[in-house]
Amino acid sequence: MSRRRLFGSILLFIIVLIISGVFYVYQPHRNITEARVDYTLQVNELITEYLDNTTKANAKYLSDDGQSKVIVIVGVISATSKSADGRDILILKNKRQEVGIQCLFAIGEDEGDIKIGEKIKIKGVLRAGPEYNEDLEMYENGYLEKCSIVNI
Amino acid sequence: MIKRITVAVLLIGGIALTGFSQDKVSNSGSVKFKSLVKKDVKAESQSLTSKINLLEKTLVVSVPVQGFEFKFGMMQKKFNAEKVMNSSAYPKAKFKGKIISDKVLTKTGSYDVKVKGEITMKGITKTISSDGKIVVSESKVVATSTLILHGSDFGIDLKYGKEIEISLTIEY
């Protein structure tokens, strides 16, 4: 191998290394609306899994690197509110349940024309599961973020 | 007659009890943090649940750790990792404390207060105190506070985590 060729290969290797390094450091966030769905389930199924065994549910749905499971959840809208930055929040909860899942919509997505009591299908990433919070002295909803509505 | 008295006592008791239950629960607010070592290491969460009681002067805040969003994905991965926040095992950061003020906070007004209580992250609880502000209007209550945390108190051995400023704004 000529010296020039060797130099060329090393240079190419370094360039590739730098480019992949930059991509690694500045990698964008996952686009949850477009991401592959890991689980599709009813809101009460997710709640039961969490209330039965939180540790097991955390291991199933939450990832060490924060890139937790993308889920599609089906449930009844029990309340609506707004986040501090003006995004829609929907709370999915069955009438008989004390706790629900609160869904914070992704930037650019909104709840559209919805009614309380209506059944809806929402896609999002799970940030934390529902649980009884002893400090709050009440049940705390599970948190689904970067949500978008999926057509039923 | 006895029946009537019983009903009256129950009624008055009931009114008194509802009067004392002044819990306000909110899921609208933001928690921001930034490293004081490196200013562009910052993140924000728009998901939380909080309960305030202006009569008893208590405040509780619970935030899902994975809800903190950084500018880039890599920072977020590092933040959630076992060595830093270990968020898959400890998905919530919590604060529970008292609002210190000699004023009557239930009336409309703006109050400079102290907030003192316990913060729990990664299963480790530390006592903290800081300044805060509570603005009470006819339609809502807004609570704000800024506090400084040290990563080493929570077993976080990271240069950027040495000193972290946390700002909280919650609307009830």
Task: Write structural notes for this entry.
The complex is a heterodimer of chains A (152) and B (172). Helices cover 27% and strands 34% of the residues of chain A. With 152 residues, chain A is of the alpha+beta class. Chain A has 2 domains: 1-30; 39-149, Nucleic acid-binding proteins (OB fold (Dihydrolipoamide Acetyltransferase, E2P), Beta Barrel), CATH 2.40.50. In chain A, the strands form 2 sheets. Chain A has a 5-stranded mixed β-barrel. A two-stranded antiparallel sheet of chain A has the order 6-7. By secondary structure, chain B is α+β, with helices and mostly antiparallel strands. In chain B, 16% of the residues lie in helices and 46% in strands. Chain B has 2 helices and 10 strands; from the N terminus they run H-E-E-E-E-E-H-E-E-E-E-E. Mean pLDDT of chain B is 89; it is low at 14-20. Chain A binds chain B through residues 24-30, 58-59, 62-68, 81-85, 87, 89, 102, 104, 127-129, 133, 135-138, 140-141, 143, 145, and chain B through 25, 27-30, 46-47, 49, 51, 60, 62, 64-67, 69, 72-74, 76-77, 79-82, 86-89, 91-92, 94, 96, 169, 171.
Can you summarize this structure?
Chain A has 152 residues and is of the alpha+beta class. Chain A has 3 helices and 8 strands, in the order αβααβββββββ. In chain A, α2 (43-52) crosses α3 (54-61).
Labels describing this entry:
heterodimer; A: 152 residues; alpha+beta; OB fold (Dihydrolipoamide Acetyltransferase, E2P); 2 domains; 5-stranded mixed beta barrel; two-stranded antiparallel sheet; 3 helices; B: 172 residues; Lipocalin; 10-stranded antiparallel β-sheet; 2 helices
